[in-house]
Amino acid sequence: xxxxxxxxxxxxxxxxxxxxxxxxxxxxxxxxxxxxxxxxxxxxxxxxxxxxxxxxxxxxxxxxxxxxxxxxxxxxxxxxxxxxxxxxxxxxxxxxxxxxxxxxxxxxxxxxxxxxxxxxxxxxxxxxxxxxxxxxxxxxxxxxxxxxxxxxxxxxxxxxxxxxxxxxxxxxxxxxxxxxxxxxxxxxxxxxxxxxxxxxxxxxxxxxxxxxxxxxxxxxxxxxxxxxxxxxxxxxxxxxxxxxxxxxxxxxxxxxxxxxxxxxxxxxxxxxxxxxxxxxxxxxxxxxxxxxxxxxxxxxxxxxxxxxxxxxxxxxxxxxxxxxxxx
Length: 327
Ligand SMILES: Cc1cc2nc3c(=O)[nH]c(=O)nc-3n(C[C@H](O)[C@H](O)[C@H](O)COP(=O)(O)O)c2cc1C
Description:
The protein has helices at 27-35, 48-59, 71-80, 84-97, 115-123, 144-161, 177-186, 222-232, 249-257, 267-272, 276-290, 311-323; strands at 5-7, 10-12, 16-18, 40-42, 46-47, 102-108, 128-133, 166-170, 191-194, 201-204, 209-212, 239-242, 262-265. It is an alpha/beta fold. The protein has one domain: Alpha-Beta Barrel (TIM Barrel). It has an eight-stranded parallel beta barrel, surrounded by six helices. A hairpin with a 2-residue loop joins β1 and β2. The radius of gyration is 20 Å and the shape is globular. The two termini are 35 Å apart. The structure holds flavin mononucleotide. Flavin mononucleotide binds at residues 19-22, 44-45, 105, 107, 132, 169, 196-197, 215-217, 221, 243-246, 265-267.
């Protein structure tokens, strides 16, 4: 059974990837991911705040922190414990001990300070970079054009500094998701990951205080990812990696049928351990065997919306089938 997949110009043994999270900051977990058949690993993101802290620590240059306001000191205190150096030693160890691709990740929303860090990821041996573009339109002052410009500036500037493949990981907060993703795929990135799951807030009603909402995804969260994978996969000029809500091997199969190049999983690994990647791989292979497929390309994208098809008509038909019971 051949589950080989080309992703970001790299050859992966399996389309199933251990996505970026705290688990992928640990070398033993990365080794276990490889032993359990992961096609690649995406390291925990290095955060812009860490980079700024590191720049200050090493160069004594006062980086611009104005836009963090009072929260900067709080953030800096925490990131200081999680030094940038640890990241680079993790990359070195991962490159020595793993044979699957190691993908670095930067969590960014501005670009002044961390461009040369992407280069350091490349020099440390990362096979590709995933930019965790945490740009969310929270500000009433932020327009569509501002977001568009920020994305283009970051991508274009990074492309000039590094030569390894770049993918971007986005949230699903876009008014014109399909058009915007297609335009991004035209400016020369190698892949788009849909979607990052933004950490929501919750409220402690006894303490009258904000607290983080649960960070792990639930099974039902697959459907937004599935819908957009089916809409976008044939309309992009780059690879598409599907993330959020992947909990079972059946979820992996669905996303591949919808046209995903690769599928990332995180919450399922927190719940079941890294070895669960083996169960996902076995499930994928069993399904392929049952359906007489010998390679992923034989079925990838079979249920995606076609390149020349109108997504709205396709989805309207599904809607009518359900509500009007017309077949
Ligand atoms: C504890 C935790 C830490 C995470 N850290 C990162 C991170 O450093 N960088 C990143 O791009 N995504 C991070 N994520 C998001 C995941 O990569 C993934 O996009 C999200 O959890 C949705 O996928 P899932 O449904 O498989 O969990 C994190 C998720 C969790 C639960």
